[in-house]
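Dissemination and training. As part of the outreach component of the grant, students in the summer workshop were shown how a complex can be specified as a set of sequence lines and then modelled as a single object. The example used during the hands-on session is reproduced here so that future cohorts can follow it. Participants entered these lines:
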Amino acid sequence: MIQFQQVTKRYPGGLDALKGLSMDIQPGELVFLAGHSGAGKSTLLKLIAGIEKPTSGTVLVNGQNLARASRGSLPYVRRHFGLIFQDHKILFDRPVYDNVKLPLDIIGFDGREVKRRVLAALDKVGLSGKEKLNPIALSGGEQQRLCIARAVVHRPSILLADEPTANLDRDYAHDILELFKSFHQVGVTLVISAHDETLMADYGRRILRLKNGQFTA
Amino acid sequence: MKHWFRLHGLALSRTLGALLRHPVATLLHLAVIGLVASLPLGLYLLLTSVGGVAAKMPVEPQLTVFLKPEADVGALRAQLAKDARLAQTRFVPKDDALKAMESAIGSGDLLAGLAENPLPDAFVLTARRDVPAAELTRLEQNLLTDPGVDTVQLDSAWAARLEKAIALGRHALQVVVLLLAVALVLVTGNAIRMQILTRREEIEVAKLIGATDSFIRRPFHYSAAIQGVLGGLAGCGIAAGAIAWLNPAVGELAAAYGQPFLLALPGPVELAVVCATTMLLCLLGAWFAVWRHLRRYR
Ligand SMILES: Nc1ncnc2c1ncn2[C@@H]1O[C@H](COP(=O)(O)OP(=O)(O)OP(=O)(O)O)[C@@H](O)[C@H]1O
Ligand SMILES: [Mg+2]
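and obtained this result:
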C-alpha cells in the first residue's frame, strides 16, 4: 500500500534527512516508526502524505506517485489520509466541535451527517460532552485525542500519527495506543512514530528503526 | 450539484459571520470603498448635469461682422445667404446702429460736433444651433479673409469655453476613475491579505488535510464581493448626500443666471454600475491576495 524505493530527502541547504530508504507497508498493517530526535521520522511521514517531495527515489501510495500528482488532484489524494501532526495544528480560535468538523467541511458533507460523524468521533476518543469547549481548556492528553478525532472523522484508509504519545505518561500513552489498535482492527493502515521504543515493544508489531536517515535492524 | 451549493452556502455563511464578527474593520473598509467610489460618481453626476443643461440652453451663437466703409455689401449678403451654417442674416446699416445707440442712451444728439456717423455698417449673423464651436471659429476666420470685413465678434465664446471645460472634465474623470480603480484593488488586496494572515493556521491545516484551492479562496472572494457591493452602495449614498447638501446653493446660483438647474442624484443605472464596478475591483484585489498566499503551498 505504501512503497518507498531508494527514497532520499534533502532539505534545501541541509543534510540528507533520509538516505536511500526502501520499504513496503501492506494494507491494514500497523507499523511503528522509531528513532532519535532528528532521525527523520516526521520527514518520512510527510513523504507518505505528499507534504514533501522526495529528492530522489519514488514514493508510491496505492500505486500512485504523489510527487507527480497535479496541484488539482493532490487535495483529493490527501483525503485518503488521516494526519496527526507532531505540533498538533489545533485551531484555538474555535471550539473542539469545529476543529473536528474541518475535514468534513472540506469534503462537503451535509449538515446532519457532519453532526453525526463529529459526535461519533469525539465519543470514540473519549471527548464526549467537551465539544463546545475551546481546545485551550483541554489537557495535553485531551488535545492529543482531539487531534485523533479530527484525523479519523472522515474515515480515512491510512492513518499517519507523528509522535502521538509525546509528553504523555505511560498509562495515558497506552490508552492512546489502544485507541489506534481499535482503528487497526477495522482495517485502517497505520504508521505511528515515537522516539520511545519501549512503548511499542508491548504490541508485537513491525518496528521501522531510523537512525540518521537510515533504517537499522 | 447539491454538493456544490453546500460548499458555497457554507463559505457564504462563514463569510457573513466573519464580517459581522469584526464590525469595526468591516465598516472601516466599507467607508474606504464608499469614499473612493463616491468621488468619481460625484464628478460624473456634476458633468452630466452641467452638460445636460448646457445642451438645453438656448444658445444661438451670434457673430457680429463689422464692415469697412469700402465693403461690397451686396456681394457679402449674397455669400452669407448661401452659407448653410447660418440660420439668419441681418444687415444693420450704420444709421440704424446710430439710432439704436441714441435710443439706448436716451440722447438724440450724439453726433453734435461730429462731421459724420463714425459707426460701421454691420451684419448680425445667427448660426444654427447644432453648429459646433469649432465650426463657428472657422466661419469667423473665413469672414476675416474678406477684404470688406474689418472685425468679427463671436458672441458665443463662453459656450465654446463651457463645452471645452466639460470635455476636460470628462478626461479628468477618466483619469480619476483609473487611479481610484487601482487604489481600490490595492486597498482590498491588502484588507484580504490581513484576513488571510489572521486565518493563516486554518488555511495551512486545511491545505494539509485535503482542501482544494477553491475551498480556501471561496470565503475570501465572497467577502470581497459582498464588501464591494456594500461599499458601492455606500459610495452612492455618500455622493447622493453630498449633492443633496450642495443643491440648494447650486439652485440659488443658477437662479441668479436665470436658469433653473440642480445637480442630478444617482439613479438606478448609476447605482448598478457603481456596485458592479466596486464588486469586480474588490474581487480582483482578493483574487490577487489569495493567489499570492496559496502559491506557497504545494
Ligand atoms: N523544513 C526543513 N528544512 C530543513 N531541514 C529540515 C526541515 N525539516 C526537518 N529538517 C531536518 O531534517 C532532519 C530530520 O528531521 P525530522 O523532523 O524528520 O526528524 P524527527 O525524527 O521527526 O525528529 P523529532 O523526533 O525531533 O521530531 C533534521 O536534521 C532536521 O533538522
Ligand atoms: Mg518529528
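Chain A touches chain B at residues 49-51, 53, 71-72, 74-79, 81, 83, 85, 89, 91, 93, 102-103, 105-108, 110, 150 (CB under 8 Å). Students were then asked to discuss how this feature might be tested experimentally.
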